Amino acid sequence: MAGGQSEREDKVSLEITEEILQSMEVGMAFRDYNGRISSMDFHRTSSYLVTASDDESIRLYDVANATCLKTINSKKYGVDLVSFTSHPTTVIYSSKNGWDGMLSEQHFMRVWFTCNHELFFFLIGSESLRLLSLHDNKYLRYFKGHHDRVVSLSLCSRKECFISGSLDRTVMLWDQRAEKCQGLLRVQGRPATAYDDQGLVFAIAFGGYIRMFDTRKYEKGPFEIFSAGGDMSDANVVKFSNDGRLMLLTTMDGHIHVIDSFRGTLLSTYNVKPVSSNSTLEASFSPEGMFVISGSGDGSVYAWSVRSGKEVASWMSTETEPPVIKWAPGNLMFVTGSSELSFWIPDLSKLAAYVGRK
């Protein structure tokens, strides 16, 4: 990361307080979606944000100027999860319509597919991941192998590789420069996946546990297995904090677990309304890792202090499903996506009133 970006994140990390969180409100909203936002991602070093929506659109925003730069429709394949590559106008996204429209259900065929010298079969019409240039709306590469919905997608920030998890109970490791997967891991449940910031470790969560893998020798199996405190409900999202010291895991039963990523110690658990099997409970660390913000099954948003484990802020909603939620890198801002895209920033008038009371 460039020095300027690092300095900016350090500066922001010193400024985030409970009072700032409590003052945050929607400063800008885009309400022109015709479906729920299913995924979004910030580019690490630019001011760009990308969203994916059930209206089968991918939208690119310039956050600094609060403008939508481009809308690209993926009517044929649909779009579910989306993530930036290292390039600010290139993304990888998963299809949502299923089977890529290749064959009807009556004509599925079993064929053999080689992945890292291991043979397994999948149904033609497999779920694809696509490398898309937003600049000219061109597909640069297709990544085929999963044969059910992809529910987790994590890109490595230091290398051109990524990991995907599917309801077909496989986790695949990919190189952006190759169409065939570079590795395959079988799991016994719905997988949630994540790389750490250094790209040295990745995590796979399912069945009440988080399994930690060394990227250089993942085929030997996990080097650590951490318990999620007895929570056996389906894993939704697993993430590392920016400094890699903490992890969070969300589950379908409405639990957000914060875990020490070195010791495996369960530090705290926050509870929100459970989510349906078609929804995903997403949470996000603040840039310095001192706070966690999360959606809820009733559409609300909550914030907790990692240090105290206490709820420090909440925002009620008229929505009925959990919003996707991301904290903007190096900014006093987080973004939620539901039927609209909302940018949350501190209300300076509330902060001024707080300073006056002090």
From TrEMBL:
Places the protein is found: Nucleus
Name of the protein this chain belongs to: Anaphase-promoting complex subunit 4 WD40 domain-containing protein
Protein's organism: Nyssa sinensis
PROSITE patterns given in the database record: WD_REPEATS_2, WD_REPEATS_REGION
GO biological process: DNA-templated transcription termination
UniProt keyword Nucleus present: yes
Protein family per UniProt: Belongs to the WD repeat SWD2 family.
Native organism taxonomy: Eukaryota, Viridiplantae, Streptophyta, Embryophyta, Tracheophyta
Domain of life of the organism encoding this protein: Eukaryota
InterPro entries in the record: Swd2/WDR82, WD40/YVTN_repeat-like_dom_sf, WD40_PAC1, WD40_repeat_dom_sf, WD40_rpt
Keywords assigned by UniProt, alphabetized: Nucleus, Repeat, Transcription, Transcription regulation, Transcription termination, WD repeat
Residue ranges of WD repeats: 30-71, 143-175, 284-314
One annotated Gene Ontology cellular component of this protein: Set1C/COMPASS complex
UniProt-recorded Gene Ontology molecular function terms: chromatin binding
Chief localisation class: nucleus
Matches recorded under Pfam families: WD40
